[in-house]
Amino acid sequence: MQKILSSWFVQGMIKATNDMWLKGWDERNGGNISLRLLEEDVAPYKQEFDPNPRHVALTQDLAALKGQYFIVTGSGKFFRNVILDPADTLAVVRVDEQGKGYYVEWGLVNGGVATSELAAHLQSHIVRMAKTNGKDRVIMHCHATHLIALTYVLPLDSKVFTRELWEMSTECLVVFPDGVGILPWLVPGKDEIGYTTAEQMKDHSLVLWAFHGVFGAGPTLDETFGLIDTAEKSAEISVKVMSMGGKKQTITTENFKLLAERFGVTPIEGVL
């Protein structure tokens, strides 16, 4: 009998949360991850599912996700502890057939519910599924230090932020040609921030929450981690350049056009 703890998706969540903790992005219970699972992913492990799963109601309409499975981090759970006790800190949940809540099929063995940012995650999943024809399966949120720092000094404008991050590292245009979405500060854990994030996810795989953190979307845990890691590295370079007195030279618009041509990407309009 296969054990769910050895499944690729539980092991993937252990690695992702530990990597993010080691990066310093997820202090205490800061940050959350959700990974959409397919029927074939969970089928070998259903014998370990709770025969009488707890139901948790949600306030937003999730009809577009009815019956879908997700593995998610738990509310109030510390990322540094996932590697120690994944069955306590993670959950496999299934959205109910009415799209009004979810069942805890596995995990959270000591009680609790899925991440408090589930509204933002699931609304973003709906958008990214449509945007990528189902390819994107991961939503990742963390408190990436230098990206947050930049929201205090740069204008909260998508084009300004995108250009700054692209200029700080050559690979950024290639990794996120769709740029960075920006949200003003909003109360976390509420439906409003979920819907507003999802609206930005229509155009961007990376969305910054001013003074709070970042949301990333991608097809795999590795790809989504890499997306945030690349943007955060660029933000770190920007912070250091500012501390050294600012840019004396930089990548030019013509350079960017050549880069986009070389790698076959289409930069979001209005930045170059």
From TrEMBL:
<comment type="function">
    <text>Catalyzes the reversible cleavage of L-rhamnulose-1-phosphate to dihydroxyacetone phosphate (DHAP) and L-lactaldehyde.</text>
</comment>
<keyword id="KW-0456">Lyase</keyword>
<dbReference type="Pfam" id="PF00596">
    <property type="entry name" value="Aldolase_II"/>
</dbReference>
<feature type="active site">
    <location>
        <position position="117"/>
    </location>
</feature>
<feature type="binding site">
    <location>
        <position position="212"/>
    </location>
    <ligand>
        <name>Zn(2+)</name>
    </ligand>
</feature>
<comment type="pathway">
    <text>Carbohydrate degradation; L-rhamnose degradation; glycerone phosphate from L-rhamnose: step 3/3.</text>
</comment>
<dbReference type="InterPro" id="IPR036409">
    <property type="entry name" value="Aldolase_II/adducin_N_sf"/>
</dbReference>
<comment type="similarity">
    <text>Belongs to the aldolase class II family. RhaD subfamily.</text>
</comment>
<dbReference type="InterPro" id="IPR013447">
    <property type="entry name" value="Rhamnulose-1-P_Aldolase"/>
</dbReference>
<feature type="binding site">
    <location>
        <position position="143"/>
    </location>
    <ligand>
        <name>Zn(2+)</name>
    </ligand>
</feature>
<dbReference type="GO" id="GO:0005829">
    <property type="term" value="C:cytosol"/>
</dbReference>
<dbReference type="InterPro" id="IPR001303">
    <property type="entry name" value="Aldolase_II/adducin_N"/>
</dbReference>
<dbReference type="GO" id="GO:0008994">
    <property type="term" value="F:rhamnulose-1-phosphate aldolase activity"/>
</dbReference>
<feature type="domain" description="Class II aldolase/adducin N-terminal">
    <location>
        <begin position="11"/>
        <end position="239"/>
    </location>
</feature>
<dbReference type="GO" id="GO:0019323">
    <property type="term" value="P:pentose catabolic process"/>
</dbReference>
<keyword id="KW-0684">Rhamnose metabolism</keyword>
<dbReference type="GO" id="GO:0046872">
    <property type="term" value="F:metal ion binding"/>
</dbReference>
<dbReference type="InterPro" id="IPR050197">
    <property type="entry name" value="Aldolase_class_II_sugar_metab"/>
</dbReference>
<protein>
    <recommendedName>
        <fullName>Rhamnulose-1-phosphate aldolase</fullName>
        <ecNumber>4.1.2.19</ecNumber>
    </recommendedName>
</protein>
<keyword id="KW-0862">Zinc</keyword>
<feature type="binding site">
    <location>
        <position position="141"/>
    </location>
    <ligand>
        <name>Zn(2+)</name>
    </ligand>
</feature>
<dbReference type="GO" id="GO:0019301">
    <property type="term" value="P:rhamnose catabolic process"/>
</dbReference>
<keyword id="KW-0963">Cytoplasm</keyword>
<keyword id="KW-0479">Metal-binding</keyword>
